[in-house]
From TrEMBL:
Necessary cofactors: Zn(2+)
InterPro entries from the UniProt entry: DHS-like_NAD/FAD-binding_dom, NAD-dep_sirtuin_deacylases, Sirtuin, Sirtuin_cat_small_dom_sf, Sirtuin_class_III, Ssirtuin_cat_dom
Cofactor note (record): Binds 1 zinc ion per subunit.
GO molecular function, one term: zinc ion binding
UniProtKB keywords: Cytoplasm, Metal-binding, NAD, Transferase, Zinc
Superkingdom as given in the UniProt entry: Bacteria
SUPFAM superfamilies per the UniProt record, alphabetical: DHS-like NAD/FAD-binding domain (SSF52467)
Official protein name in the record: NAD-dependent protein deacylase
Primary location recorded for the protein, binned into one broad class: cytoplasm
Compartments in which it is found: Cytoplasm
Role summary: NAD-dependent lysine deacetylase and desuccinylase that specifically removes acetyl and succinyl groups on target proteins. Modulates the activities of several proteins which are inactive in their acylated form.
Organism: Gemmobacter lutimaris
Record note on domains: 2 residues (Tyr-53 and Arg-56) present in a large hydrophobic pocket are probably involved in substrate specificity. They are important for desuccinylation activity, but dispensable for deacetylation activity.
């Protein structure tokens, strides 16, 4: 059986009630990403950034995985060790649907990070700038999230997976944020068949051999099953 690499974006969690970023009334239409998703924004106003992520963490904790997350977990069980999920999402809906080995390129809402010593721990429901680091005691706690201008996580694992993939599938990703937006090109150049599953064609649609449009909860199970 071939190796499948699946990239997921906010669109796979949209029908679980978690907002996307660039759709109508998406997060970036209500917040200035420079204020809440960059290191400079955090340095300027850490309380605002914590509030932004505290609200999203609370949302994510009440959300439920949907039929698309569950279908991917079924696919992984059917082909053990052959199906990799790389997600731009910071929620844990893939894990709660039963997926394993999920690579969170942009970090996780459930993670806290000390900006001073690098210590990581599980985030409390609500984080605050004055929270002391459990390791060094400094009050430089931040969400364990990859902001614009920061280096995404797991790249050393992802590049080889893209080169080895027989099939690359992008689900609910607008193809607007790099390096994830270039993954279809990377995989396609190495010989993978590239499939896009989305509510509408993404900015990187030309990089795909095949595009199926519709809501993730319909087109992902239809593809998997
Ligand atoms: C970096 C934080 C150096 C977490 C986010 C070229 C090469 C490399 C970098 C760059 C480059 N050009 C510019 C850059 C810099 C920058 C960048 O890409 N800027 C953009 C704006 C041009 N990139 C970076 O800074 C990255 N770091 O580059 O390091 C480097 C260089 C080379 C190689 C390696 C490293 C860091 C980027 C990470 C930023 N952090 N978020 C958080 O708060 O969540 S990004 C932000 O956008 C979100 O995290 C999200 O993950 C990401 C992408 O959004 P999508 O998931 O696609 O969501 P979106 O709303 O955009 O789209 C929704 C999609 O779903 C749509 O397609 C819609 O049709 C679909 N949909 C909606 N409903 C449904 C649906 N589909 C199906 N069913 C539905 N029901």
């Amino acid at each position: 059986m071939e190796t499948i690499v699946i990239l997921t974006g906010a669109g796979i969690s949209a029908e679980s009630g978690l907002g996307t970023f660039r759709d109508k009334d998406g997060l970036w239409t209500r917040y200035d990403l420079n204020e809440v998703a960059t290191p400079d924004g955090f340095a300027r106003n850490p309380a605002l950034v914590h509030e932004f992520y505290n609200a999203r963490r609370a949302n994510a904790r009440t959300a439920k995985p949907n039929a698309a997350h569950e279908a991917l977990a079924r696919l992984q069980r059917a082909w053990p060790g052959k199906v990799w999920i790389v997600t731009q999402n910071v929620d844990d809906l893939h894990e709660r649907a039963g997926s394993t080995g999920v690579l969170h390129l942009h970090g996780v809402l459930e993670g806290a990070l000390c900006a001073r010593c690098g210590q990581r721990w599980s985030a409390p429901a609500r984080m605050h700038p004055a929270d002391p680091c459990p390791a060094c005691g400094e009050a430089q706690t931040r969400p364990d999230i990859v902001w614009f201008g920061e280096y995404p996580y797991h790249m050393a694992e992802i590049w080889p997976l893209l080169r080895a993939a027989d099939l690359f599938v992008a689900i609910g990703s607008s193809g607007t944020v790099y390096p994830a937006a270039a993954f279809a090109q990377d995989a396609g150049r190495a010989g993978a068949h590239c499939l896009e599953l989305n509510a509408e064609a993404s900015a990187t649609a030309p990089d795909f051999d095949e595009i199926r449009l519709g809501p993730a909860t319909q087109i992902v199970p239809a593809w998997v099953d």
